[in-house]
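agent: user wants the structure for FAD-binding dehydrogenase from Micromonospora wenchangensis. delegating to structure tool.
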Amino acid sequence: MNDCDTLVAGAGAAGMAAALAAARPGRTVVLAEARETFRQGSNTAMSTSMIPAAGSRWQRAAGVEDSPGRFLADIRAKTHDRVDPVVAAALTSVAPELVDWLADDCGVPLELVTDFRYPGHSALRCHSVPDRSGAALHRALLDAAADRDDLHLIVPATLVDVRTDEGGAVRGAVLERPDGSREELSCPAVVLATNGFAADPDLVRRHLPEIAHGVYHGGEASRGDALRLAERLGLDTGYLDAYQGHGSLAVPDAILLTWATVMHGGFLVDSTGRRFGDETVGYSEYAVPVLSRPDGRAWVVYDERVHDACRAFKDYRDVLAAGAVRWADDVDALAAVLGAPTDALAATLADADAAASGTASDAFGRSAWGAPLRPPYAAVRVTGALFHTQGGLRVDRHARVLRAGQPVPGLYAAGGAAVGISGHGADGYLAGNGLLAALGLGYLAGRHATA
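agent: tool returned. relaying tokens verbatim.
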């Protein structure tokens, strides 16, 4: 007799989705989490809760025309057609069903984000909780799990091995407690939701050398557990050079300054008072350019209009509470805040004003501005950061892990433990790719494991 029907390792978004989808009547699910701090310290809790879905009921209610095919085309364009085609097709297809399930079955209070469009998305398709907080999303999933009688959370317990039979099918898993004691559970299905490897400096230097000197801003449990299991079991891996970076982590406070500050009309300058690129290409690929500036620092400059538009984000309110936003009444005062030459900064502001007003073209090709900035000006000092990796175990359309191109019976992977939909490097990342790969693959895995 099995100890459980499905064992899920990791209680972030991927693991929660897998456990909730697998917890059907008469099916016992064990959810094992390695860290007691996972409620506050997971990548999910640290996210802005953006879940892209094309063709959702929220879009229809808002009159937004979109489709999974259009979303897939956007992904292919952003990744230069270097995305895992099976995973991308599976996630864009299941996304509308996923957000319905999150709202109706899990009680997640979703809404469509309509105040601006993130880079690379050709339609308004990001769904989020009202305060744009990953912590609120995570709490909703945990509340849903608490209502499932056959879903049992074990904390702290780390998955250290997966047992298979002579034919290679999963037959059990081994959990380890902090005191070193081990327990072997019998089960026919295991979901690896242990996240990626961004918290392991050696693995980052090996696979992501361009961002290795950046700040890591993510969960400490992302230590590459799935990759080590892949080595032992001979599992297929891919896209290990893919990651999500971010070009606006407030320093020294280490709080995310939402890129909405940019999309509403703000821009970045370095200590010389000059811009250094088109900020609207995306926050992920802007991490390395920011790190390449003097001292690896830059400033996000915006105004009161942008400030008011960003207050919906809890992260932004946290930046305000930390005192990271500096205000200046005019260009001279702003130059003093930035420690930049006044003449150069005044020229930058004038050029940005002309581009935003449509009276001149931007030297970097930026076309999306919102409106020209007007004093008083706001400024936040930022650096480039690594948020999470986007490569891992190769999976099929049901999130089953592959070995030599064939699915391993009973073994699944989701979120950072699996390949994502961001292609290679940082520039293929679209807002919400991480959470869609986590929740979507988790949902597919849990549903298939108990089908």
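agent: one observation worth passing along. The chain has a mean pLDDT of 96.
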